[in-house]
Amino acid sequence: MNISLRLNGTPVDVDVPPHWTLLRTLRDRLGQTDVKHGCGEGVCGACTVLLDGVAVNGCLVLAVQADGGDIETVASLADGDTLHPLQQELVERGAVQCGFCTPGMVLGALEATRIGAAADRAEIRRSLAGNLCRCTGYTTIVDAVEAYQQRVANEVSP
Amino acid sequence: MFPRPFEFVRAGSVQEATAILAQDDGAKVIAGGQSLIPMLSLGLAAPTCLIDITGLELDGIEIVDGLARVGALTRHRELERSAHLRSVLPLAAEAAAFIGNPRVRNRGTFGGSLSHADPTAELCAVALAHGGRVVLSGPRGERTVGIEEFLVGYFETAAEPDELLVRAELELPPAGSGTAFIEVAERDGDFATAGAAAIVTLDATGTRCEHARVVVIGIHGLPVRVAEVEDLCAGEAVTESLFDAAAAAVERAAMAEDDPFISAQHRVRCARACTKRAVSTAFARARGEHP
Q: Could you give all domains of chain A from N- to C-terminal order, each with its CATH number?
């Protein structure tokens, strides 16, 4: 089936079988390998993308169900060589080791910050549930999201 | 770890969806897909055709005649985060926060959860605790089925193969009621080991229980109301010993079985603890003592 997406700001048309997930389509048809294939069953969060601004597991959405949608992946965040402020916070705190979970962590944390679901450490931990990291022990990731959330809060109400 | 091929149809209407279901034995409905797509990927389901109903106007909640009409496409995340829904259906809001993880809740739907009838489904427990009915639409028109009749057993409902659940109509508890949902899982966000949902109503004195509805997860093939707990609460003074009696009654009602990961004994112990906490918290909330 032919579907139309807006992928990181660029309109794309792609012919994809109905049984292909959004994850498979992004990686294998559209070369978007920043979207990671981890568990493939909605447990690890590595394939998180924003679909119309809403965080979803790419492995749990059929590509045909995303037809007409606006997809944002982690690759859309950096401005040239300048990382997104949340990415920068992660780097500065050693919150990235192997990096496989990082795209999902970043997008999940961005959504949580946008919708006001990251007000304190407990909320940040809840909002990152289902993003599995096997390296860092999570503490530095939560630190980075907390720092980013405070930065955003200060910008909104200086 | 990839689904096998199937046809895909975007339903333009409920009638179109149920007409395809009636014609094609291999057709299944997909909405949020947060249980179905993993089942496809794991090879646990292999429909020949998926009918996508997410384009239909079946979402949203309205209050009509003391019933909360919950559209089939209402997402868990909306139950969890909408301030309005949190005030109207606080039990559903509390339970929804236990489902999967935020990304699953962004997609998963109320109708999908009821129709899937997973033995640990939080929203099946919520629907049973409220009581009420579901509205099923099929080629022969609409019919309503009581929620307890609808939830037949382990992954089984009373919906015919050509019927689509279009909404649930949940009874709202009277003023002076309190609700609570408690769940434990082996890992955060995993399927529940056990859980309990309670809706309790105090009498005019505010010290005795007038009415209680208690649903327990983990002691049966589906969440179940435990009549003995409800009966022993009715008319009783609200004390710690009542909560202990409720927990003991859950153990007597339990028909849990061992599975490869969790023993029946562990599930029942968790169910007892969840019930005690859910009932005591619901009473405290009814008295305005507990957030």
A: 2-76 (3.10.20.30), 85-156 (1.10.150.120)
